[in-house]
Specification:
This protein is mostly helical. It has one helix and two strands; from the N terminus they run E-E-H.
Length: 89
């Protein structure tokens, strides 16, 4: 017998042997259920926004890395051209 099906009955306590009433489970009120659904909806919306922002950050990180590589290439080329210029002059 589950505790839910025994709710409201008097059963013998397995520890002390006394007759003990089994309390009825507290059912959530309509207001509490509404609040739970609202919080779950907000959590889902929040996770969706977190996923979107994470995607933007990843895209921008990739773009930043590309610009850093381009800058490094330009700096290397500048150094190469300056070296070439110094050998001619």
């Amino acid at each position: 017998m589950t505790s839910r099906s025994a709710a409201g009955m008097n059963l013998t306590c397995q520890r002390c042997g006394k007759l003990t009433p089994v309390p009825k489970p507290v059912e959530p009120t309509a207001d509490a259920t509404t609040k739970v659904h609202e919080i779950q909806r907000k959590l889902k919306e929040n996770e969706s926004q977190r996923t979107e922002v994470t995607g933007y950050i990843n895209q921008l990180s990739i773009q930043l890395h590309r610009w850093q590589l381009r800058l490094q290439t330009l700096n290397d080329r500048k150094q190469q051209l300056e070296t070439e210029l110094n050998t001619i002059a």
